[in-house]
Design goal:
The chain has about 300 residues and is an alpha+beta fold. The chain is built from four helices and twelve strands; from the N terminus they run H-H-E-E-E-E-E-E-E-H-E-E-E-E-H-E. The strands form three sheets. Strands 3-6-7-11-10-9-8 form a seven-stranded antiparallel beta sheet, covered by helices on one side. The protein has a three-stranded antiparallel beta sheet with strand order 1-2-12.
Length: about 300
């Protein structure tokens, strides 16, 4: 009985040991497969999640950026990228600036004297002098005198033609001159101190009435000559504003055009130019000059 029991015990023990071993192996195996399965399961879940995350990131990167961000980047990047090309393109697109055409100055100039009220037009190329320096002269003949019957004449202005106006001729000088005299009456203004002496008998010739432009004037002329120079003058008088106005047209020539192929200047042509200036003369109203009377501050016999 004892041996059998032992044998049974031994068998039982062996069985128990085998069972335990089997259980241990089985448990170990089960336990090991469970971890792998867990890892596999975790991996199975993790990999799709990672793929989903990568897919989402890819979709987000492919989507257009927000409007604000795009405009900000574009605004900040545009000047650096397109500054030089845009400037050159703009410069090329702009039309070339138009050349300024110089304004032509008028051929005639207006002269006006507020003291005498005289104004007239004269060619810009002619030389104008006024005041005391305007006393007219003719080449080789000196100063040209005024032709008032009473003293008190005052020179206003003189316009002279250029010396080179008529090359190849005996032309020396020509001028237009204005004088005024407030000491002459209207009746006296119609007369001249010097008159035309071209009469064959050497007798004075009465002044003639002429109309220049819209003004009626009295006119006379004089002529003088020497071996080397000749002078011809035409005098015109008009009375306005209580003043006698005198206009002188003068022409001077040199030599007799007999040597060196020099021709006589066309005198009518020269005087026609001077008469054009005379025709533009206007007389503006001038306030009469009043001489203030000095008051006497004392009476004879007063202490």
């Amino acid at each position: 009985m004892a041996t059998t029991w032992k044998s049974d015990d031994k068998n039982s023990s062996n069985n128990a040991t085998n069972n335990a071993t089997n259980n241990t192996v089985s448990g170990t195996t089960l336990s090991s497969w469970s971890r792998q399965q867990k890892i596999a399961m975790i991996a199975g879940f993790a990999i799709p999640g990672l793929l989903l995350a990568l897919s989402a990131c890819s979709k987000q990167s492919s989507q257009p950026a927000p409007a604000g961000a795009s405009s900000t980047v574009s605004t900040s990047a545009t000047p650096a990228i397109t500054a030089t090309p845009a400037t050159s393109q703009t410069a090329a697109a702009l039309p070339a600036p138009a050349k300024k055409t110089p304004k032509k100055r008028p051929a005639n100039v207006t002269y006006s004297d507020p003291n005498s009220g005289v104004s007239f037009l004269y060619p810009r190329k002619f030389a104008l002098t006024s005041g005391d320096k305007a006393l007219p002269q003719l080449a080789g003949m000196g100063d040209v005198p005024m032709n008032f019957v009473q003293p008190g004449g005052v020179v206003v202005a003189t316009v002279a033609l250029p010396d080179s106006s008529y090359p190849g001729t005996d032309f020396a000088s020509a001028f237009f001159n204005v004088n005024v005299n407030r000491s002459v009456s209207e009746q006296e203004c119609a007369h001249f101190a010097f008159v035309d002496t071209s009469n064959a008998d050497g007798e004075p010739v009465d002044a003639e009435k002429v109309k220049i432009g819209t003004a009626e004037m009295e006119m006379t002329s004089t002529f003088s000559a020497s071996v080397v120079a000749q002078a011809e003058t035409q005098y015109y008088h008009s009375y306005e504003n209580g003043t006698c106005y005198e206009y002188i047209l003068g022409l001077g020539t040199e030599g007799f055009a007999t040597e060196g192929g020099v021709e006589h200047v066309k005198r009518d042509e020269v005087f026609a130019k001077l008469e054009k200036i005379l025709a533009t003369v206007k007389i503006n109203p001038v306030e009469p000059v009043h001489v203030a009377e000095q008051s006497v501050s004392g009476i004879a016999g007063d202490k």
